[in-house]
Amino acid sequence: MPTYEGRNLQEAIDNGLAELGLARDEVTVDVIAEGKRGFLGFGRKPAVVNINKIEINVDSFNIAVPAPPKHHHHDLPHPHLPGHNPEKVTATAGTATMALADDPPDPSPRPAAGMTNAREQHIEAALAQVSAYVVNVTTALALPTTVKIEKTGRDKWTFFLATDREGLLIGKHGRTINSLQYLAQILFSHLTHSHDTVELNVGNYRERREQILEKLAVKTARDVIASGQPIFLDPMPSFERKVLHATLADNSYVITHSEGDEPKRYVVIERKKGSVI
């Protein structure tokens, strides 16, 4: 089991990360020895940690992106969203046709059953356009994808993407899927002028990533408590930072806050002033 040393815990962690070539949010840290400062150089003991890489089934890649295929707006019929069930829409890569799940495509745009006002119809049309956009982008990336949309919160729409190449679509550390989600959110907000949020998920990646972030938060809090020194995590999207803040919200010994500007904003975890261990 490889271990790494330093004059204090933070230095030991930094030494291990430098040797492994990994970022702080890619690993878990087990404190083996907290180290001692000693007196006049006598009795000094180094801090010792064990660092393990957090395993995520994600492949790094390089893709030459071809020019996206041209599609005309009139080729994209609006989906129909049931009024009393979770809204579901499918998009077929390559053809960029839109249809209700388990229902044949209908080229004639008309209000879906259960739609009671213009806003819902406007949201429906925007979802169709965003779905087509996601399909076109993934097709251009040579990642054939189908899309199913469900309303997973009061103001939240989740696009469940299915592909045979999940690792490539997720990208290293989620960079590809996060970038595509960012673009989809901008398009949706531009079309609807609403505060609804869009989330893209591939093969339960969001759920797995949330579990990893929760473990990262707990491990980092332990390191902060042991060393008394703040730890600055790597930049991450706002929805991932929220997981860290929420995980440690009730912790009696540490506090969290974010610093920096998007897209390089990061979480800082530090000891609470006056906390007694």
UniProtKB/TrEMBL annotation:
Subcellular location: Cytoplasm
Gene Ontology terms: cellular component: cytoplasm
A GO biological-process term: cell wall organization
Self-association and partners: Forms a complex with KhpA.
Free-text note on domains in this protein's UniProt record: Has an N-terminal Jag-N domain and 2 RNA-binding domains (KH and R3H).
Recorded family membership: Belongs to the KhpB RNA-binding protein family.
Name of this protein: RNA-binding protein KhpB
Organism: Schleiferilactobacillus harbinensis
